[in-house]
Amino acid sequence: MTSTTWLMITFGIVVVQRLIELWIAARNQKWILARGGQEFSPEHYIWIVLLHISWLVAWPIESYRLGPQIHEGWPFIVGGLAVAQFFRYGALLSLGHYWNTRIIIVPGEKLVTRGLYRWMPHPNYVAVALELALFPMLFRAWYTATVISVLNAVILLTIRIPAENKALTQLRVRPKRK
């Protein structure tokens, strides 16, 4: 198969994955809101959406314009993407119905501390950071990998994670016991 074919297949897989995740998030949002969930900091959500749409459009275009070439270190990059999937689906499975792309907290519910959340507070953000960098790198879209990764870090570190932590603290969410 050609590099262009691999680019198109990879892009298609990523799009399908994201659409499924948006469907899961919408389903989970209804479930959480029905239990009294409250959304926090919705004003920054548009920036996350725009960042991800920009990324999804930019890396295939950048790669295609340069003449798609798979990076010679592709086994390591694919290994990194496998790690990202471990973190993504580990987070999704650990949170269950609480997993969402928005910050929605049910007052009085206990913080999930099973699975990856036993060892780290935000494993899904590790997955996202890895994917935003590695998918473009796989096809030599260096500009996209760099710019989107920097913007993601700024949004996560200055807006998203502090907003999520504040929401959890405000609602006095306590750790669940095993």
Overview of this protein structure:
The protein is mostly helical and 178 residues long. The termini are far apart. 68% of the residues lie in helices and 4% in strands. The mean pLDDT is 93. A two-stranded antiparallel sheet has the order 1-2. Strands 3-4 form a two-stranded parallel sheet. It has helices at residues 3-34, 45-66, 74-95, 123-138, 142-170; strands spanning 38-39, 104-105, 110-111, 174-175.
Essential attributes:
Four Helix Bundle (Hemerythrin (Met), subunit A), 5 helices, two-stranded antiparallel ribbon, mainly alpha, 4 strands, elongated, 178 residues, two-stranded parallel ribbon
Mean pLDDT: 93
Low-confidence stretches: none
Q: Write down the Rg.
A: 17 Å
CATH topology: Four Helix Bundle (Hemerythrin (Met), subunit A)
Query: Which percent bin holds the helix content?
Result: 55-70%
Residue fraction in strands: under 5%
Number of domains: 1
What summary fits the major beta sheet?
2 strands, antiparallel
What is the approximate shape? elongated
Layout of SSEs?
Layout: H1 3-34, E1 38-39, H2 45-66, H3 74-95, E2 104-105, E3 110-111, H4 123-138, H5 142-170, E4 174-175
Helix pairs in contact: 1-2, 2-5, 3-4, 4-5
Can you summarize this structure?
The protein has five helices and four strands.
